[in-house]
Design a protein that fits this description.
The protein is of the alpha/beta class and 438 residues long. The chain folds into two domains: 172 residues, Aspartate Aminotransferase, domain 1 (Alpha-Beta Complex), CATH 3.90.1150.10; 247 residues, Type I PLP-dependent aspartate aminotransferase-like (Major domain) (Aspartate Aminotransferase, domain 2), CATH 3.40.640. The protein contains 13 helices and 14 strands. The chain has a seven-stranded mixed sheet with strand order 4-10-9-8-7-5-6, with helices on both faces. Strands 1-2-3-13 form a four-stranded mixed sheet. Strands 11-12-14 form a three-stranded antiparallel sheet. α2 runs antiparallel to α9 and α10 packs parallel to α12. The two termini are 26 Å apart.
């Protein structure tokens, strides 16, 4: 057992659930074998506590490091901010520059910006502003929008309501039951399901919040239809761009579809690993923030703003979306080609720089665990989600493709012989909250 595994055993005794983020729990990847902690991360390479080196084809900081780990330009801006003081009684001037840049990227509709430090709280801020603007209570949502009470309350009274919103098995323990019915899901690409929500609460929908695109192909007219419904009922339309933003274009993915929201929320890629999230919106809607209490000391620290400005500059300088699309397409091709060659039932849903893979087998989780085990032995971190980074190159991706093909050959034989579970050196990976929250 390595140092990382030993430390995780200790961590589970000290930290409830073992980590601060579900998506970083070792049980989600390769139980008992996953190198839970890192000593160093640079480019697309990671070194664990035993100094073992891996190439990250898992999540690249849960999607936050599109420019790669420890990008020199972003780090330089952050170090300068630290040298000059990361916190002060006065405000950081970089906050204004970041606001100007984000608003300029989203003309003509965006006019104002607010900032936070995590995606969940940014979505909560957006919902608060929408409720302040409309003086209404309920929220119609589609997708995953964080851990806050306003969102998790969807599962009060029916713990299956989030099952099709990426969070199967989630219990709303600790969320006030009086929030029941304030947050109602609708299905992606299904305008009728949104109309059902509207008909049930015709005069009380404050906001419609949704991810404009993730893995599923967008049906023609869907976003336009959501926009029309929001206009008809007077609800604030919020696009949650925390995951998709800055991957296919500089700014929100909604720019590619020509549908403008009233607010958009950004995170993950915005600071290339440093904590910064943004809420931008129209002048009219964002003005409602002045009538509500939305305030936090560490939303004003300098590092996030400096990182955000430097990240946007670097993205524009190198045209990072084009690189991410190119590498993402090559990764998806490597996966699908290797699966086809070995007769494997692998499903890949994706936008080009972000691929999600699922194995169409009854023991699909065990198959994914075996893939992670084989690739870890070959020097890779892999998961069921692969976020592309500009730190890859063609040589790295070609090597990944070759090793994936070899791994799929082993997996195909194991499936044929019925020995997938027998080849695992630890338990099968977990999925969702069903066995993680107890």
């Amino acid at each position: 057992m390595g140092k990382s595994q030993e430390l995780y055993i200790k961590a589970k005794k000290l930290i409830p659930t073992g980590t601060e983020l579900l998506s970083k729990r070792p049980e989600m990847f390769l139980p008992d074998l996953w190198p839970s902690y890192y000593k160093k991360a640079e480019g697309c390479r990671v070194w664990d506590l035993d100094d073992k080196e891996y190439i990250d084809f898992a999540q690249m900081g849960v999607g936050s490091c599109t420019l790669g780990y420890a990008d020199a330009d972003v780090n330089a801006a952050v170090l300068e901010a630290v040298k000059n003081g990361s916190m002060c009684t006065l405000n950081s001037y970089e906050e204004v520059e970041l606001a100007e840049r984000l608003i300029a990227l989203h003309q003509p509709w965006a006019a104002r910006a607010r900032f936070a430090r995590s995606g969940g709280e940014a979505c909560a801020i957006a919902v608060r502003i929408a409720r302040a603007k409309t003086r209404r209570n309920r929220v119609a949502f589609c997708g995953y929008h964080g851990w806050s009470d306003w969102y998790i309350s969807a599962n009060i009274g029916d713990e299956t309501r989030l099952d099709e919103q990426l969070l199967p098995g989630l219990k709303p323990t600790g969320v006030p039951r009086m929030l029941q019915g304030t947050n109602i899901p609708f299905m992606y690409n299904d305008l009728e399901s949104l109309e059902d929500v509207v008909q049930k609460y015709p005069d009380d929908i404050a906001a419609i919040i949704m991810e404009p695109r993730r893995g599923e192909e967008l049906k023609e007219g869907f976003l336009e239809g959501v926009r029309r419904i929001a206009d008809r009922i007077g609800a604030v339309l919020i696009f949650d761009e925390i995951t998709a933003g800055f991957r296919l274009c500089i700014g929100g993915i909604h720019k590619l579809y020509g549908v403008q929201p009233d607010m958009a929320v950004f995170g993950k890629a915005l600071g290339n690993g440093f904590p910064i999230t943004a809420i931008i919106g129209t002048k009219d809607v964002m003005g409602a923030a002045e009538s509500s209490f939305i305030s936090s000391t560490f939303w004003t620290e300098r590092i996030g703003f400096a990182a955000g400005v430097a990240t946007l500059k670097k993205m524009e300088e190198i045209n990072s979306p084009q690189i991410l699309i190119d590498y993402g397409d090559k990764i998806v091709h490597a996966l699908t080609s290797a699966a086809e060659k070995n007769g494997l039932k692998l499903c890949v849903s994706h936008i080009a720089p972000l691929a999600h893979i699922d194995w169409d087998y009854e023991n699909g989780l065990a198959v994914q665990t075996l893939y992670a085990q084989i690739m870890l032995d070959r020097g890779y971190l892999v998961s069921s989600a692969i976020y592309a980074t500009t730190a890859y190159n063609d040589e790295i991706i070609a090597r990944f493709a070759k090793d994936t093909e070899a791994a799929f050959e082993i997996i195909a034989e194991a499936i044929k012989e019925g020995t997938v579970e027998k080849q695992l050196r630890g338990p099968v990976k977990q999925s969702g909250f069903a066995r993680l929250v107890k």
